[in-house]
């Protein structure tokens, strides 16, 4: 082989080597650029997430002040269509928007009150607490859903919250849940949220969705009243319950349709309606009804730099007009 051919061969090898090095460096450069871009985007997302958390905190404080102002001007007398209630307030941000909506969260049966029924069954509470079980069973019946057994469902909820391992009639304690494909135990505590019902025997997701307008799981186990001026058509079974079932759900809806603009002045005013006046006094449980709100729910939706956050805050309205946040949940 001549020197000239050898030289050309070496030059070709060198060229291929250089091209391979350039290609490798290009790949490395692309990888570095991608990593830097991903890191930058991640930093921006983290920054936006942190900023969104601050917006949530600010929205909570604003909501508390707004509710206190609403309660102060109305005496907690809230009614359907009231200005400032159930109407979203939108606040524009640089790079997003905050939407805050308040609703009367008074109208629901607090399932955590059944814990008193559990204590009563164990001889650990007053006879008054035993009526809570009867109320819950009646409400399940008034809900008008097919395939329900109110007695066994109530037992299952009580068993979930009580500290013992003795199941009620048709109920379920640890021995039942331990035999499931994915075993678990009862909590022995009040429900943290209504979604916890999904873990309790008999409560299928579609059933919970159907009962959602009627039920809630609030930290307090005190007796809860319903605001007659914000009850909706879906919540009519609660009014039937307050009439001990002597008022049908359909008749309860008719009563709510007669509600005047601005609501009834008092519970006694509503009781003057013929449909209610004809019910025996001992069946009309006026102590379950009110024209004031005891709880107000606030939903905050934040859209900021591509992020979307949804938070629900539950406020308790105290007798002195102050409000206290008793639960915060992230919904999305």
From TrEMBL:
Boundaries of every T2SS protein K first SAM-like domain copy: 107-219
Membrane spanning stretches: 12-37
Alphabetical GO biological process terms: protein secretion
Sorted UniProt keywords: Cell inner membrane, Cell membrane, Membrane, Protein transport, Transmembrane, Transmembrane helix, Transport
SUPFAM superfamilies hit by this protein: GspK insert domain-like
The T2SS protein K second SAM-like domain, residue ranges: 227-291
Subcellular location: Cell inner membrane
One GO CC term on file: plasma membrane
Family: Belongs to the GSP K family.
Protein name: Type II secretion system protein K
Native organism: Henriciella mobilis
